[in-house]
Amino acid sequence: MLENVRNICLALPEAVEHIDGFGHNTFKINGKSFVISGESEKGFSLSFKSDRETQEFLLQKEHFFKTPYIGRHGWVSIENPERGAWDELIGLIQEAYLRAAPKRLVKKWMELHQS
Fold this sequence. Notes:
By secondary structure, this protein is of the alpha+beta class. It contains four helices and six strands, in the order H-E-E-E-E-H-E-E-H-H.
């Protein structure tokens, strides 16, 4: 699953991967985290930057939960996502990237993905 996340995140312009002090794979743009993944006692965990409206919507779904410690800032997590969830997760990861990216990259992204 980490390979899926890595492939999605690193395909985004100027995104980099960093291993944080807790051993989590953290994906950043311009020094700002937008996705954090790692292993827990329950398995693979994926957390992503969100806004409060999206967070509230996702928390109503069965598999999503507020990310410990940073959930108050809109972060959402999912553990051991099923294959069918990846289409939605790709969109959520891209949205997380756009929330953290500088305006010039957001503009470039929007120009490339309009139509």
